[in-house]
Structure formats: structure tokens, C-alpha cells
Amino acid sequence: MDEIEEGRPITFAEVTREIEAAKRDGYARIDFFGGEPTTYSFLADAVRFAEDAGLETMLATNALRFASAAYAKAFFRRARPLAVRVSLYSHAADFHDRVTKLPGSFEKTLAGIRNIRAHHERIGVSVLIMSENANRLAEITELVHGLGVPGIKFIGLIETDRTGHAYPELAYDLHALKAPLAAAVAKADRLGMIVQLEKLPICIAKRHAERFVQEAPDPTFFKAEICARCVESPRCPGFSRPAIERGGMPAFAKPITRRG
What's the rounded Cα separation, in Å, for the pair 72 and 60? Predict the structure, then answer.
């Protein structure tokens, strides 16, 4: 159940019914994401309900509520998600706070990460790639490592939200992303971090094809003609249509003919 698509808050009873249905349908994992799931007072109980049903759980959060050490302690006393993933937009407070539109959210998110890390070893940070942070991914990686977080995921921006509004000022240059993305992955490797890549064409970092994760397909992505000759096409999201319409196919867009 998706609170964004439904356009209304959801209740604990609805969540538990969805969890029970997922169990009956053979699902093995429940992901709690938003919106922001920590806005619901019953979140820990919902996670525990799924865990008691024998399902793995994953929590995606902005970590603002976890800036309270008391909240973090109480949450993890009640629930033990398999993994927690925190959204971070920059290594610089001003940009992060402008994206969230919440002054002070950068420092609260960092505090939340530290508090989560104190109770849970399986924590990762998700970095949404945008125009203002695309060239600073390596610096963000250093910050994340300094917080004691073992994993980082770089996610390509989906340029339209579910209601169709565009955010062109946030759109990064796909042509220019290859080098800074490679530098960030190399930095993470040197630091011994786990790296994942999402919502990006695999050919942008073909040496790291095994690090791409496939989430639900998005209608703003498409497969180009060259994708038919690429061995990674079945698990690649393809290209962002707005990005290609804006700048054309990037030079790295070539079919991968063999794995490894």
C-alpha cells in the first residue's frame, strides 16, 4: 500500500492486512518507505508484526526522528529491521536543507544516522544524484564513511514525480556524470564500503555491473535500440527519457557484449 498513491494516511490495521496478504502471496520481504514512515507512531509495531510473521523487513527513512536518542533506543528495542537506509542529499548542510525544505535537517539527519548506527550495524545511505551534488559524490562518500556507515547507494534522479511535475533545476547532466560517479565508486572501494547503483544505465559504469540493483521499473525510463544488443538489458532500467530528450545519447551508451 502506498500512501502517496492513495493520497491519505494509512492505519495500523491496513498495514497489518497488507502484511498478511503479502505473506499469503509468498513475499519474503516488506519494505517500509514513504513519504516518511517514521511519521507513523505505530511504525515499530508494524515492523515487529512483519518480523513475527516471518518476513524480512527494510526501513527507508530521512532519519530525522532518529535524531532523538530516546526514539532510536525505543524503536530498536521493539523492532529489528534487516537493514535501514537513510536519504542524504549532500555533504553540505545548505544544499541538503534546501532539498528537504527543512532548515537544520542536515544536522538532524547526521545525528539520526549516528543513533541508528549505535543500535544497528546494517545501515546504508542513499544519495539521490542531482545537478548540485553530481560532481561531489566522492566528498559525500567520505562523509558517509566518517559516520561509520558501511554502505552507500547512488540513485539517478527520476525527473518527474507521480503527479507529473518536472524539476528541471535538479536534473543532472548524464553526459558528465560518468567521471564523478567512477571517482565516487573508487573512493568507496578504497574505504572498504559496499556500493550499489540504481536508476542509472548500466553502461555508465559497466565495470561495476554487479553493483546495480533493479527496483520497480519507472515509466520515465526507456530502452534504446542499442539496448537490444546488450547482455545487461534484462536487468537494466535503460535511460531517463527526459535526460535523453534534453541532451541526446551520451558517449558511454554502448551495448555491453559480455559480462565480467
Answer: 14
